[in-house]
Amino acid sequence: MDMNGANPPLLMVHGWGGSHQETWQKSGVEQLINDAGTTVIGVDLLGHGTSAKPHDPTEYADLSAPIRNAIGARTTSVDAVGFSLGAIALLDAAMFNPKYFRRLMLVGIGDGLLEPHDPTETARIVSGIDGTASSDDVLARQFGNYARRTDNDPLALRATLLRPRKSPPTQQDLHKIEAEVTLVVGDRDFVLPAARLVRSFRECELVMLKNCDHFASTENFGFIDALLEFFCAP
Hints:
36% of the residues lie in helices and 15% in strands. It is of the alpha/beta class. It has a 6-stranded parallel β-sheet, sandwiched between helices.
């Protein structure tokens, strides 16, 4: 891989409970990117996929460390796409170094990113992992099912959710990011609304996926079309 080549590679980051293999390879999305002539850099966040899976929440305080390590000493910017937790981690990396990325596609995040963390929402999702969620709490139970999928470590994913949180980014923080940004959100995603987040970037386009919820975003044909157009079109 020529990490300093003229054509920037595409760094791909999965969401919570996923992995590079499950989210981008198994679905065939990585192959589409490769077929279009773009090199992929796969990243597994801590607690996921092939990465270490500590059970101590403090180990997850630096969410974007695996992304920064993957970029390494590269002297020119890369492109990147991230889903949900992966999108949050990409933004953390971009605020660490506003020159890291040429283009960013952020999938499945919204205005809640600009608000202080709500521990009650984390406790709700953790209850889904622990099996104590109310039988009618569909969202918590969905997260619990994701945590218990093959090759996942539920205790590591639980620790990821309970990690120490930074203060939310300000619009001034996000405006410093030099990348061209596309925000992709399903019209049935619980993260909506997203208008304030869109306005926080220097240059950002919002793509809405029709009849799409949060968990279906990365396999949605509208997302895949937007991905290929944003990163691979001549």
